[in-house]
Design goal:
DNA primase DNAg catalytic core, N-terminal domain, Dna Topoisomerase Vi A Subunit, Chain: A, domain 2, five-stranded mixed sheet, about 45% helix, EC 2.7.7.101, magnesium, Znf_CHC2, DNA primase
Length: about 700
């Protein structure tokens, strides 16, 4: 087995990897302060954003679940792989050749089926399937796609392919490309038979199922021939290390940008429906793959569609989206038949905040989007989405519509049928509104409906939930920093007012999770450590050298000071930014790693530097920075601004001043215990020198402040 990846190669990958680019592939990030971005955590379910990313430092941290780290740690958590595999995966993405200790150069021989190899196998399989679509044997596949009015260009756009009928066509092709049989099995591309392995997909039209970054994770395939040994009309890649049917969405790679921009998503039931929707101009369409839309799918959608324009990242009701004709919404295109209604009922199990903007679109004659486009054209498909009905109304109306409510017995039947549905609405305010609405729809007394709904609610053990509750997140500013915040002019310091600065400093102290205290000493130490981690070049090396452990009183910062010493002290100016964070977290160990990550993304009371997020991510107005300095300036510790240097000096002066004060106090207590004599006179001289040093320090820093 190959040795460890060489350290210099790890640092090459770290410098090349764009944390914003990698995280934003699965999380919708919004600017939040200088160089910081906030979104919904991909590692735990939340309705308000507590996931912070600081691209310039290459650090992320979630204040909700406590996870955090560098770009490698993010990939490890997201892909469920170890550090070595994370480095290999990113090296593949950024085309960096890795070298290994004691193994020469180039890639090591692969032992087992690692994730990167499985992705490579799927990508090669996709190329093979696409190459087969124009063969003579694939005529049936072309007829099927052409019969749905899909052109050759359309099929190329969506990656349609053909899996030949033979026994092991793909297996032999992959073997010729260097893939092992175990890798083919682990990727779900082959199955084990009595005479060896054989192709899983045979004689079928194929569609690649990709993640939001465009990597092929698996395939969906439709039956073409009656003699197919697999009876199912559609089959998908079985669950693998890459592919989980509850966590993949067909078309997410094509629809992601539009979903984020429009805060809308249309969920259809098939691959051809996704194609029809996109070709008709509904570019937010996606589909589940062989399973019903569930909670894991909802998490993926929520992270992309989340918005913080009202001061909280949450999904509550269909909100107006600037520049879009439709409000924010999740639209399901269920069939109008019994199966479609069952699917709609299944969606009731999603959380109430998600359901408040969930709609259902059902075409006349129960046509699916693909057939609707064939029969009535693109405009009919667009109208289908525009005229969607709220999910609650669809399910309730479907139940009531089965009864003739002109008769008393029909009314009671409708009440009995719909009460368990209304009872499942967890939000109390919506529950009351829909109880009243349903009462009017059926034509019975409100008391009758409430009695049935309450009884059903008790039987179903439905928990209350307030989907509309305003939730506060880390980073929300009180007063003018939340709702109604005025825009700042470029270069303007929002913390020029000392009161605003103290407000943020105190909020930083009270909202951190690693030490609960709020006093002047703690704040000075916390702000200094955050400054040192985020902009180490702002720290004066001579003054830093005068610090000792005695200058810190807070236990966590005393320990962190020792970790900084263990990491080699202040980094040199040419130290790569990522390497500084890596060395620091490595020295701090698992106990201090979350503290370091939290301090790295903590907002500081400073004006925007204009360089805090250079080369990565959009600015507050949504414009993407494309300065192209990722290989040079961004990789190194950036120089501080004048404001950052001044603030760092103020913090250093406070710590040194407190250290001198403690030494003076200790010396004076000692002096009171000494008899008159030379020792007491010498101690008095030492106190005088300390007091002079203290005055000089204060004058040097604060004497220049107006």
């Amino acid at each position: 087995m190959a040795g460890m990846i060489k350290k210099e190669d790890v640092e090459k990958v770290r410098a090349a990897a764009d944390l914003y680019d990698i995280v934003s592939a699965s999380v919708s990030l919004k600017p939040s302060g200088t160089g910081n971005y906030v979104g919904l955590c991909p590692f735990h379910d939340e309705k308000t954003g507590s996931f912070n990313v600081r691209p310039a430092l290459g650090v992320w941290h979630c204040f909700g679940c406590g996870l955090g780290g560098d770009v490698f740690k993010f990939v490890e958590q997201q892909e469920n792989i170890d550090f070595r595999e994370a480095v290999q995966l990113l090296a593949d993405k950024y085309h960096i050749e890795l070298h290994y200790e004691n193994s020469g150069t180039g890639r090591p021989e692969h032992s087992g089926s690692k994730r990167a190899r499985l992705i490579e196998a799927n990508e090669e399989a996709q190329r093979f399937f696409v190459s087969q679509i124009m063969t003579k044997e694939a005529l049936a596949a072309r007829k099927l796609l052409g019969g749905r009015t899909f052109s050759q260009a359309d099929c190329e756009r969506f990656g349609c392919g053909y899996a030949p009928q033979g026994w092991d066509n793909l297996v032999r092709h992959l073997a010729s490309k260097g893939f092992t049989q175990q890798e083919m099995l682990d990727a779900g591309l082959a199955r084990q038979g009595q005479r060896g392995i054989y192709d899983y997909f045979r004689g079928r039209v194929t569609w690649p199922i990709r993640d939001s970054t465009g990597r092929t994770l698996g395939f969906g395939a439709r039956k073409l021939y009656e003699d197919d040994q697999i009876a199912a009309k559609y089959i998908n890649t079985p669950d693998t290390a890459l592919y989980r049917k509850t966590q993949v969405l067909y078309g997410i790679d094509l629809a992601k940008k539009a979903i984020v921009k429009k805060r809308q998503v249309v969920i259809v039931e098939g691959y051809t429906d996704v194609m029809a929707m996109h070709l008709a101009g509904v570019d937010t369409a996606i589909a589940t793959c062989g399973t019903a839309f569930g909670a894991e799918h909802a998490k993926i959608v929520r992270r992309l569609i989340a918005d913080d324009s009202l001061g909280a990242v949450q999904l509550v009701g269909p909100l107006k989206v600037e520049g879009q004709p439709l409000s924010s919404r999740i639209v399901f295109t269920f069939d109008g038949d019994a199966a479609g209604q069952k699917a709609a009922l299944h969606a009731f199990g999603l959380d109430s905040a998600f359901l408040t903007q969930t709609f259902v679109a059902v075409a006349d004659d129960n046509l699916d989007p693909c057939d609707l486009r064939i029969e009535r054209g693109d405009e009919a498909v667009r109208s289908l989405v525009a005229n969607a009905k709220p999910l609650y109304d669809f399910v309730i109306d479907s139940a009531i519509g089965r009864f003739d409510t002109t008769y008393t017995t029909g009314q009671m039947g409708a009440v009995k049928a719909v009460a368990p549905l209304v009872a499942q609405i967890r939000d109390r305010s919506l529950l009351d509104m829909y109880t009243r609405k349903t009462t009017r729809r059926i034509g019975v007394d409100l008391d009758v409906m409430r009695r049935e709904v309450n009884m059903a609610r008790r039987q179903l053990h439905v928990r209350d939930d307030d989907a509309y509750a305003q939730r506060r997140r880390f980073g929300d500013q009180p007063g003018t920093f939340g709702r109604g915040e005025s825009r700042l002019e470029p270069g303007e310091n929002p913390y020029a007012n000392p009161a605003r600065r103290r407000e943020l400093e105190h909020r930083d102290a009270t909202e951190q999770t690693y030490f609960r205290i709020d006093d002047a000493v703690f704040i000075a130490e916390q702000q200094f450590m955050a400054m040192l981690i985020q902009v180490p070049r702002a720290i004066d090396a001579n003054w830093f050298g005068a610090l000792t452990l005695a200058n810190f009183m807070t236990p966590v910062f005393r320990t962190l000071y020792q970790a900084i010493a263990a990491a080699g002290g202040l980094p040199s100016n040419d130290t790569p930014q990522g390497l500084w964070m890596h060395n620091l977290t490595k020295a701090g160990g698992p106990m201090l790693e979350p503290v370091i990550n939290e301090l790295a993304v903590m907002p500081l009371p400073l004006p925007p530097s204009g360089r805090a997020g250079a080369g990565s991510g959009p600015d507050a107005s949504g414009n993407v920075n494309t300065s192209g300095d990722a290989d040079s300036a961004d990789a190194q510790l950036r120089p501080p601004t004048k404001a950052e240097t001044q603030y760092a000096n103020e913090l250093l002066a406070k710590l040194l001043d407190m250290g001198l004060m403690r030494r003076i106090g200790a010396a004076r207590r000692r002096m009171t215990m000494l008899p008159d004599g030379e020792e007491k006179i010498a101690l008095l001289g030492e106190i005088t020198k300390l007091e002079t040093s203290r005055k000089d320090l204060q004058a040097q820093v604060y004497g220049t402040i107006g």
